[in-house]
Write a structure and sequence with these properties.
This protein has one domain: K homology (KH) domain (GMP Synthetase, Chain A, domain 3, 2-Layer Sandwich). Helices cover 44% and strands 25% of the residues. The chain is built from three helices and three strands. The relative contact order is 0.23. The longest helix has 16 residues.
């Protein structure tokens, strides 16, 4: 779903310092879409956030967006 990937890209790019190094891989498994977010090493702390707050917020927003199209969304952050 290109609009879901674009939403995740826009939100993630706003959080990090080096959006040009942002890579989001998408794979679909039945009714589930798995997004794997890869960022620069120096941006790992920003995308995860203090105590994982940013990552949790990203997952919550994407879960809500997935519900609008009837898909389950999983957001993984690659290390």
């Amino acid at each position: 779903m290109p609009e879901l990937k674009q939403l995740l890209t826009d939100i993630s790019a706003a959080i990090i310092d080096y959006p040009e190094q942002l890579v989001i891989d998408e794979r679909e498994e039945g009714d589930t879409i798995v997004f794997t977010v890869t960022v620069a090493e120096s941006d790992m702390g920003k995308i995860i956030g203090r105590r994982g707050k940013n990552a949790k917020c990203l997952r919550t927003v994407m879960k809500a967006a997935g519900n609008t199209v009837g898909k389950k969304i999983i957001v993984d952050i690659a290390e």
